[in-house]
TrEMBL record:
Pfam families hit by this protein: T2SSE (PF00437)
Annotated GO CC locations: plasma membrane
Protein name, as recorded: Bacterial type II secretion system protein E domain-containing protein
PANTHER family, per database record: SLL1921 PROTEIN (PTHR30258:SF3), TYPE II SECRETION SYSTEM PROTEIN GSPE-RELATED (PTHR30258)
Molecular-function annotations in GO: ATP binding; ATP hydrolysis activity
Domain Bacterial type II secretion system protein E residue range list: 225-239
The UniProt record lists the keyword ATP-binding: yes
Organism phylogeny: unclassified sequences, metagenomes, ecological metagenomes
PROSITE patterns with a match to the protein in the record: T2SP_E
Organism of origin: marine sediment metagenome
Length: 249
């Protein structure tokens, strides 16, 4: 069930004195991020509305409104996040991507930040990535014993193609990396092509897509096929060419 929205209030003097380095804004952003981590959210949406800024968490694939922030602090919030994510705070006309890290309860998290210029101001979406991939287990994802055995049988098949599909925030990336952890042995050459590389895995060759450098999913996949791979992970199949190469591989 969707959580009810609540409003964070500031007195007039405090609102006028807020800057990107001020304690109220830093605490506000920190509380939003910490709340998302505690709720096991995959994404945070910070979006300006007509009279306020709506903050939503994506939990189990569903967006849930968690708090409404006064519109008067919207720009300060965005600027603070962009500074932390090493983004250009003076550029508000084009989308930007950034990255920052945080810790919560002795656990490290990567935060992937995306800004999008929109009517009313920039919208910010933050993807939350748990850096401790070593603790991921297929048993924690597929809890049914029968389903777990069937899934392991499919994953351990020496040949074939496994497609993992689903809506945003449903756990596709988590499941894929749990599978790689299961299959990652010194006897296998595992190569991935991703955009972006969300987690670093020891013992696995990970390739970052870079359209500027001419490295697309399709071109990277062609090169990987010449690297004597045992297992290939394709982060996304976005076009017919990539799909054809994947199927023929």
């Amino acid at each position: 069930e969707e959580k009810s929205a609540k409003s964070i209030q500031y007195d007039e003097a405090e609102q006028e004195s807020v800057t990107v380095d001020s304690s109220p804004i830093a605490k506000l952003v920190s509380s939003i991020v910490d709340g998302a981590i505690d709720a096991r959210a995959s994404d945070i949406h910070i979006e300006p509305q007509g009279s306020d800024v709506r903050v939503r968490y994506r939990i189990d694939g569903t967006l849930r409104t968690t708090v409404n922030v006064p519109l008067s602090v919207q720009q300060e919030m965005v600027s603070h996040i962009k500074i932390m994510a090493d983004m250009d705070i003076s550029e508000r006309r084009i989308p930007q991507d950034g990255h920052m890290t945080t810790s919560r309860d002795n656990q490290d998290y990567d935060l992937r930040v995306s800004s999008l210029p929109a009517i009313g101001g920039e919208k910010i979406v933050i993807r939350i990535l748990n850096k401790d991939v070593d603790k991921w287990s297929l048993d924690e994802i597929v809890t049914s014993q029968d389903d777990n055995q069937k899934f392991r049988s499919i994953v351990n098949n020496p040949y074939g193609m496994l497609l993992l599909v689903g809506p945003t925030g449903c756990g596709k990336t988590t499941t894929l990396y749990a599978i790689l952890q299961l299959l990652n042995t010194t006897e296998r050459n595992i190569v991935t092509v991703e955009d972006p590389v969300e987690y670093r895995l020891d013992g696995i060759t990970q390739v970052q897509v870079s359209p500027v450098a001419g490295r697309t999913f399709a071109s990277a996949l062609r090169s990987i096929l010449r690297q004597d791979p045992d297992i290939i992970l394709i982060g996304e199949i976005r076009d017919i060419e990539t799909a054809e190469i994947a199927v023929s591989a």
